[in-house]
Every structure is written in structure tokens, then in C-alpha cells.
């Protein structure tokens, strides 16, 4: 007896639900993603075998460039405005609402407080040019503004910040020593040193910290 041929039917897969899901995910990420403004200076961090992750939020960050320039910042935008106002009272400067708004958008500050207002009035493109030649936040013994930034940040946030230092691997040791001595004066003997994990060849992508 001959075999009965079974009629084959083409398989139909309705892709509509999958397409809808894809667009929902795209919309979700577009609405929730937060673009972090770039830091004022790029640093090539030293490597280490540390595996502890960087604190995720409420950070007080001190960045030290290869030339020894110091930049200071806090991660919370609202805290930045409060700290700026306290620094203005400390040094006798008044910042406009627009200047405060511009400061709120900055990751860090790397100019002298006396020129900060003029710096905030510049366009983002001109700020980048200024930062190429700025000497950073003063840390010398007669004008240690880093000390004031740290103090006012602790008061403005009730000392609820995790302190991290990100220094270039070629940063002069004398500058790092001055920064550490500034912190010691405020009894800040515990901080995180941001490094590059040795297993990852991409500088600055995988960050760990070492507690000192």
C-alpha cells in the first residue's frame, strides 16, 4: 500500500508582540538613562589587583591630573548648588541663579573661586578651552581652596559622602601628598583610591578602589 503524503503547512510566527516589546524597552531606556557629563580632565589611572567596587553614589571626588592640577566634585547635583552657596559665603562671592544652574551641571570644578563666576558664564565649548590652561583648585599653604571645598561639602551634606581620589599614574607624588595632608587636617584618614583593574586592558573602564 502506498504511503499517504502528509501535506506540509508553512510555519507562521507572529512577530508583533516581540516588536512591541522591543519598542517598549527602547522607550524605557530612553526615558530612564542619565547622561553623565565628562570630567574636566582625563587621567590614566594606575593599575592594581583590587576588586572592590567603587561606591555607587554620594561621592566626593578629588581628581589629580598628570601635571598635578586638582579638580573637586560631588556626585549629587543638588548638593553641588548648596556647596557653591556655602563657598560663596566663605569667600564673599554671590552667584546668580543661572550660574548656580550651570554649576549644578558640572561634574567637578578646577578653577580658582575668584574666577568661578566668570567661568560659569562661558559656553561649554569655551570652558573646555579654559580648562586646558587652568591651574586647578589651589592647594598651597596660603590659599588652600581644596580644604574649603571639602569642609563645605561635609557641612552641606551632613558628612554623608564617600571620599574617592582619582589620580593619574604620572601625577607628582608631592601633589598627592599635599592632597592627603589636606584631608588629614580634617581627620579624613579613610578614602578610596580609584585604580584600573589589571585584568582589563581598557584604562579607566573597570574601576576598583583601595582603602587607605
Describe the structure using short key phrases.
212 residues, 8 strands, 16% strand, 39% helix, 6-stranded mixed β-sheet, disordered C terminus, elongated, two-stranded antiparallel ribbon, alpha/beta, 7 helices
Mean pLDDT: 82
Binned, the helix content reads 25-40%
Total E-strand runs: 8
Shape: elongated
Assembly classification:
single chain
Which structural class fits the helix and strand makeup? alpha/beta
- Number of helices, where a helix is a run of at least 4 consecutive DSSP H or I residues: 7
Give the SSE string: HEEEHHHHEEHEHEE
- When the domains are counted, the total is 1
Task: Please compute the radius of gyration using only Cα atoms.
Answer: 25 Å
Poorly predicted segments? 201-212
Query: Distance between the terminal alpha carbons, to the nearest Å?
Result: 87 Å
**What does the largest sheet look like?**
6 strands, mixed
Portion in strands: 15-25%
Amino acid at each position: 500500500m502506498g504511503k499517504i503524503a502528509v501535506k506540509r503547512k508553512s510555519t507562521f510566527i507572529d512577530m508583533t508582540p516581540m516588536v512591541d516589546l522591543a519598542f517598549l524597552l527602547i522607550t524605557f531606556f530612553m526615558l530612564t538613562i542619565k547622561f553623565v557629563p565628562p570630567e574636566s580632565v582625563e587621567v590614566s589611572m594606575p593599575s592594581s589587583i583590587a576588586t572592590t567596587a567603587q561606591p555607587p553614589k554620594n561621592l566626593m571626588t578629588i581628581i589629580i591630573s598628570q601635571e598635578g592640577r586638582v579638580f573637586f566634585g560631588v556626585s549629587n547635583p543638588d548638593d553641588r548648588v548648596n556647596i557653591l552657596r556655602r563657598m560663596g559665603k566663605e569667600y564673599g562671592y554671590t552667584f546668580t541663579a543661572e550660574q548656580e544652574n550651570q554649576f549644578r551641571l558640572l561634574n567637578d570644578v578646577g578653577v580658582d573661586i575668584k574666577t568661578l563666576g566668570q567661568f560659569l558664564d562661558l559656553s561649554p565649548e569655551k570652558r573646555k578651552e579654559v580648562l586646558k590652561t587652568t591651574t586647578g583648585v589651589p592647594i598651597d599653604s596660603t590659599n588652600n581652596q581644596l580644604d574649603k571645598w571639602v569642609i563645605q561639602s561635609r557641612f552641606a551634606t551632613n558628612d554623608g559622602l564617600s571620599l574617592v581620589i582619582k589620580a593619574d599614574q604620572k601625577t607628582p607624588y608631592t601633589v598627592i601628598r599635599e592632597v592627603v595632608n589636606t584631608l588629614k587636617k580634617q581627620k579624613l584618614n579613610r578614602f578610596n583610591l580609584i585604580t584600573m583593574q589589571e585584568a582589563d586592558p581598557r584604562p579607566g573602564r573597570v574601576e576598583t578602589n583601595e582603602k587607605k
